[in-house]
Amino acid sequence: MHIALDLSVLERMYEKLVEDVVPRDVYDEAQQIVFEKMREISYPEYLRSPMYRELLAKLENEEEGKAVSIYS
């Protein structure tokens, strides 16, 4: 999935990098923005996707108490 950030968001992130702000602050802000965009645009679509259904099926089919590998 690709999420495009607005120019104003990219400018704010760049300003923080130039000002030597702790990188974690930049990552936190970017992560929050991406999550909000994902939730607004694609989260409902993701919940309807075959990939999500397959993930739920794997989780439901695993034995209780056993570690679940979703990438196998």
UniProtKB/TrEMBL annotation:
Signal peptide: none annotated. Residues 8-56 form the RGS domain. Pfam families: RGS (PF00615). This is Protein CBG25672. It comes from Caenorhabditis briggsae.
